[in-house]
Specification:
With 218 residues, the chain is mostly helical. The chain contains 8 helices and no strands. The longest helix is centred in the first third of the chain and has 37 residues. α6 runs antiparallel to α7 and α6 runs parallel beside α8. The model has no long low-confidence stretch (mean pLDDT 88).
Length: 218
């Protein structure tokens, strides 16, 4: 085995960065979302709400890592079959991975919907005030878990099939554009409940856009 320099190094680097940029923005976007959410929670809620949000965002990052594991697992398979022109195999892997993240999403969402207080108690010493507001925060927020897997998987799938620009577009829509617009509008209408509904609605919108693009391409 030996290393071989690309024929056009600048073009190769540009291509590599373009394809991998989407996953990078997906992770960086978590930081942006946390900053935006913290500001809105302090505007419409209180420190107890912020404490519970710290719990749910930590769990969300854990679930996102599990979804990323599915996306990273399919990358070598999809990439190899994309290069070989095996579109049928790509569709088969997509269906299997999509079914996997949807099943995971249903399970993870059910945990939050059924055990909101128990989840919060695992991460912090709760006060009566926190116990009182925990279900009203955890239950609406955990709806995003169902759609998060689709968004994350779509980003990795599009990278693997050389759709780097669309992968980056999905990451930007999720991290800044859709969520940012909703954060400005929903809380003004629904008060603190609007803050908790922002990310579930944002994930749903971006997941629909992702699926629409992938199925059109397929």
């Amino acid at each position: 085995m030996k290393f071989v320099m690309p024929y056009n190094l600048d073009k190769a680097i540009h291509k590599i960065l373009g394809i991998g940029f989407g996953a990078g923005i997906l992770d960086l976007g978590n930081v942006i979302l946390v900053i935006l959410m913290n500001n809105q929670i302090l505007c419409y809620g209180d420190t107890d709400s912020l404490a519970v949000y710290g719990v749910v965002v930590t769990i969300t990052l854990l679930f996102q890592s599990l979804y990323s594991g599915v996306g990273q697992a399919i990358q070598p398979i999809v990439s190899a079959n994309c290069g070989a022109g095996q579109d049928g195999r790509i569709r088969q892997v997509w269906k299997m991975s999509l079914s996997t993240v949807i099943a995971m999403g249903i399970l993870f969402m059910a945990i939050g919907e059924l055990l909101p207080v128990q989840i919060v108690c695992l991460f912090m010493n709760v006060t009566p005030e926190v116990l009182d507001i925990a279900p009203s925060i955890v239950r609406p927020y955990f709806l995003l878990i169902l759609f998060l897997g689709i968004t994350v998987l779509s980003t990795y799938h599009l990278q693997s099939t050389m759709h780097g620009k669309m992968s980056m577009t999905i990451a930007v829509l999720r991290s800044v554009v859709v969520s940012g617009l909703l954060l400005m509008g929903l809380p003004a209408i629904f008060d603190i409940l609007g803050v908790w509904l922002v990310l579930p609605i944002s994930e749903l919108i971006v997941a629909i856009i992702s699926l629409e693009y992938i199925y059109r391409w397929m």
